[in-house]
Amino acid sequence: DSVEFSTLGGWISTRASGMKKNVYGNMEDILIAVRITTPIGTFEKGCAVPRMSSGPDIHHIILGSEGTLGIITEATLKIKPLPATRVYGSIVFPDFESGVAAMHEIAKNRMAPASIRLVDNEQFKFGQALKEAPHGQIHALSDKFKKFYVTQWLG
Fold it and tell me: Is the full-model pTM beyond 0.70?
């Protein structure tokens, strides 16, 4: 995730889709109103009506425009309350194919966790290399053990 390096205008102009889209939706699902400033003026759609049949929807023109039309200067989004609890976990599969099969079962049974990701061992190692150094000897030892277990013991 790169939230600390991004902006709301960037999310809109790239038609962003986040890791938790299963619960919160893609950018096109949560954009209510938008204002864009261009070299020839300002354009906006400020009303949140379900559907209009009066020509192109400005949202669909701006979403994914990658900044080629102007600068997004204002936006209104739908928001949802934070969940009462958050549970994080991981599962280590004996091989990547088993992980793919598990993902298939999750999709087939229409389960929709807020976030789910399948990574292979190389992606895991890369992510670990980018991870901030742990604080304290116990955390450092625990992280080294986890890394050894996943990358060396399991494979």
Answer: no
